[in-house]
Design goal:
By secondary structure, the protein is of the alpha+beta class. The protein is built from 19 helices and 23 strands. The strands form six sheets. An eight-stranded mixed β-sheet has the order 2-22-23-21-20-3-4-19. Strands 5, 6, 11, 14, 15 and 18 form a six-stranded antiparallel β-sheet that branches. It has a three-stranded antiparallel β-sheet with strand order 1-16-17, with no helix packed on it. The structure holds S-adenosylmethionine.
Length: 661
């Protein structure tokens, strides 16, 4: 995303961007940090840590025995979380972690036969990681060697709790997939059946008159000039060529007055909605540009009469049974501008894509029962991210034409140039990725149990879990239940958000409600962890009070932070991250039973503390790096994080200005 000069997202619609801006990079404890033990695999002070809280017997933290080297560099070298591979690419889920990265933690902290718990399972990557321990990839074995982990590969068991309906289905299916070959054959039958009935809807003639098929089409809002009322497409008004640009302001072709392209009034129509039987007001969207393929040749051109005739024919086509039309439960993501008219799930689609998806969905019913969940996930993997009006194009530096991309992650943003992809061909292309992802975790003797429920109450015995790896919601960063409803509507059940751990004005949950839910979850985590068990928690926020909620949950559960590290979620290679020694990403906390936080250093006032951090290694550290170190130190010492990231940077700047060194 950083390379894009200009998304088509207008200014008023900045919620997604700001949400992502919250994901400030954390850089914690580089390998040479002097405060901790220099010995590899040694948890400083761990052996002395005892627990006397919550009626538990005194326990020594045997999870981190001094000097056994079991954890190698796992907590002293940033761990890369790659965004590639079939398992990662099969189904996109917000803030998903690379299963191979999690597998290193599971393998290092457990022995074959042990059980790992994830209380915020999302798409089930901790379960896949447990599976991978039985059949480690070459890459995992290499990474384990480089980190100095004396791992005993073999089956692990996993218990996954996930509140969300789609997350739980994903977890269950990805961790316990059907036979990959049987799945592939069934998926091909499903796509062929849908293509037989509906591929005509994507017919498109090449510029030279040859027959061809639509790859994707860009649609456009229609805007009305506030001075003279003249109607013009957003495409005609905003798109500039050579170089390709999206103009923020443009002249009305009729009266020549200047208007803001993002804020100009959108033209709407009252249309009859055949799924609800009632009328609804919808933004008028017209076909703006067509991209197709004839044989192996790709082409693009403006719309022509044949395209418009085809769309008229599609409008007469009945919508297959099973297509959802439930009302959207709008929450924090609703924007009165670009969500105008989107009241029900089917309003997120062009009629053509709604019908094609309905055809794919219906064809699944003809397949064997044991394959249907996997087939549904295949179709849904292309649904919310590629089949709706949320699919986009962006302008990228140096590119002559728009770059096609999926829905923006973590928001329900609809641009003024929504894209309609050929969903039958898109789903067909995903079959191979799913087959490959299923092959990774198919078979084996480790078990994965998935519970679709809130982790505020675990149906697990006291002290039954050997290790916990979890990645909680980062405050209000992603409203999972709101986003996931577009996929869940197709399953006929949406998530009950009552116990969703989130900061959400729409759900009337502030940081204190979020903190209370986190406390209940971590109390359960501590209850089920064996005395010598460890928990690894991945977290990030730029907001001090959210960090406070996390730290409070650890403390009240009787858990202490033993080590910190960083999970690097960039595209760079493992080697690169290791050799650079510092990185950007989410914080990792290693927790054990205990009540004594690491004693606070005598830091004096905040300015002095910041300066101490800055001069730690006699090298100039970036503000982001300093903030990460500051936050990690606060959480580790059990004190509140007083500064959010912008305030921290401002304080840093003012220290520079007054020349304090
Ligand atoms: C950061 S995501 C986890 C992502 C996961 N690590 C992955 O790789 O896919 C956090 C998850 O916690 C879930 N969640 C929120 N509140 C919950 C609760 N009370 N109990 C269980 N899960 C919850 C959300 O639905 C979301 O899927």
């Amino acid at each position: 995303m950083e390379n894009y000069t200009h998304d088509v997202q207008p200014r008023e619609e900045s919620r997604g961007t700001s949400a992502h801006a919250e994901q400030l990079e954390l850089e914690l404890r580089p390998a040479n940090q002097p405060e901790r033990s220099h010995e590899v695999g040694v948890a400083s002070g761990a052996s002395a840590r005892t627990s006397s809280g919550q009626g538990r017997p005194e326990v020594t933290n045997r999870a981190l025995p001094v000097g056994d080297g079991r954890l190698g560099h796992l907590y002293s070298t940033p761990i890369p979380s790659r965004r590639s591979g079939a398992v990662y690419n099969a189904f996109s889920y917000p803030t998903k972690i690379d299963p191979e990265a999690i597998a290193l933690f599971v393998a290092a902290h457990t022995a074959p036969g042990d059980t790992v718990l994830d209380v915020f399972a999302g798409s089930g990557t901790t379960g896949i990681a447990a599976r991978l321990c039985e059949h480690p990839t070459v890459e995992m074995q290499r990474r384990a060697r480089e980190l100095g982990l004396p791992v005993e590969w073999g089956p692990r068991h996993a218990v996954l709790y996930e509140l969300g309906v789609i997350g739980a289905l994903l977890s269950r299916t990805m961790c316990d997939p059907p036979d990959p070959a049987a799945f592939q054959a069934a998926a091909q039958r499903v796509v062929t059946a849908a293509a037989d009935d509906y591929s005509w809807m994507y017919d498109a003639e090449a510029p030279d008159g040859q027959g061809g098929a639509l790859r994707h089409a860009i649609w456009s809002d229609v805007v009305a000039c506030s001075c003279c009322g003249h109607e013009v497409t957003y495409w005609d008004l905003a798109v500039g060529r050579e170089p390709l640009t999206l103009r923020k302001a443009a002249e009305c072709p009729a009266c020549k007055s200047t208007m803001s392209t993002s804020e100009a009034r959108r033209v709407t129509d009252v249309v009859h909605d055949s799924l609800t039987g009632s009328d609804s007001t919808q933004r008028r969207r017209v076909l703006a540009h067509v991209y197709g393929r004839s044989g192996s040749t790709t082409w693009h051109r403006p719309p022509q009469p044949g395209d418009l005739d085809l769309i008229e024919r599609v409008l007469e086509q009945p919508i297959p049974a099973g297509v959802p039309s439930s009302a959207i439960r709008w929450g924090d993501l609703y924007r009165s501008g670009y969500h105008q008219g989107i009241e029900r799930v089917h309003h997120f689609y062009t009629r053509r894509n709604l019908i094609a998806l309905g055809g794919l969905w219906a064809a699944i019913d003809n397949e064997p029962g044991e394959l249907r969940d996997a087939l549904r996930l295949l179709v849904l993997s292309y649904n919310a991210t590629h089949s709706t009006l949320m699919t986009r194009v962006v302008v990228k530096t140096g590119m002559k034409d728009f770059v096609l991309t999926g829905a923006q992650s973590g928001v329900l943003y609809v641009s003024s140039l929504p894209v309609e992809k050929n969903v039958i061909e898109g789903v067909r292309r995903k079959i191979e990725t799913f087959k490959s992802a299923f092959s990774t975790s198919h078979g084996g003797s480790g078990t994965v149990r998935v519970v679709n429920a809130s982790s505020t109450q675990l149906d697990l015995a006291d002290r039954s879990i050997d290790y916990v790896f979890t990645d909680p919601p980062f405050g209000g960063f992603i409203p999972y239940s709101e986003i996931n409803q577009v996929n869940e509507a197709w399953l006929g059940t949406t998530t009950d958000d009552t116990e969703e751990a989130i900061v959400s004005p729409a759900q009337r949950k502030g940081v204190s409600e979020y903190g209370a839910l986190m406390k209940r979850v971590f109390a359960e985590v501590a209850r089920v962890m064996k005395d010598d068990a460890a928990a690894t928690v991945v977290f990030h926020s730029s907001k001090p009070d959210v960090w406070g909620a996390l730290g409070g949950a650890f403390t009240s559960a009787g858990l202490v932070v033993e080590r910190t590290n960083v999970l690097d979620k960039t595209q760079v290679s493992f080697k690169q991250v290791v050799s650079e020694g510092s990185t950007r990403g989410d914080a990792i906390f290693l927790l054990a039973h205990g009540t004594e936080a690491r004693p606070a250093d005598s830091v004096g006032d905040l300015a002095r503390e910041i300066l101490d951090l800055r001069t730690l290694h006699g090298q100039e550290l970036s503000p982001q790096h300093l903030y990460s170190r500051y936050v990690a130190r606060c959480v580790e010492e059990g004190r509140s994080v007083e500064l959010n990231a912008p305030d921290f940077y401002a304080r840093l700047k003012s220290l520079d200005e007054v020349g304090v060194t």
